[in-house]
Amino acid sequence: SSNNNSSGSGDAPYFAVNESTGVVTLIRPLDRESVEGLNLTVRADDGGSPPLNTTTTVVIQVADGNDEMPVFDTADVAVTLAENTSVGTVVCTLVATDADATAPNNVVLFSLADTDGGRFFIDPISGVLTVDVTGAGLDHERLNSHTVTVVARDMGVPALGSTATVTLTVSDVNDHTPVFGALPAPLSVFENSDGTVLTVPVTDDDGTSPNNLFSLSLANVSAWAALPAPTSGTATNGTA
Prior knowledge:
mainly beta, four-stranded mixed β-sheet, three-stranded antiparallel β-sheet, rod-shaped
């Protein structure tokens, strides 16, 4: 009998065969992503003179194990959208690949670790992240930034996964009208007086300048009709 090693690539051998028993042993791990299969040739030599030999070929296919996890092209994504962005609008597209050689080990599905109150949705196949059509939408005054954790998980057993973070900044839009506070009604001002009459309370709920800045002006001044002056004269016999 004879002892033959096989590497299939010219590097260190993968296999050894016992000279007496013919047991073939794997002596270093195989990697399906590097080697799809091996042809292992075993030769047997007898002890005669001259010695005679023969060979046989063992075909070994390397089965794929789920030893590679999905990897995002970009693990940290930053996006800015206006607060009046319509529901259903695409935030970004996440891309992740799995280096395993075969399905289902290299099939990647996307999900959200937290939908942030239902504001976001991700397509499990395409990785397209959108503002959820069933959610509350975006509002700078309520929350000016969102952090969304996206999970990419393969379908191998056991499944392997990784995460990416999408940071969404919500920019302010001038969507709030200035609002007046309560005013005294009516307001009494003595004639012949001057100076401060009152301070008009007004607020604007937009989140940033200049959207929440305002100026005041007199749009109109209208006067009530003055009461007629009393008639003057001398009263005589009860008449004027």
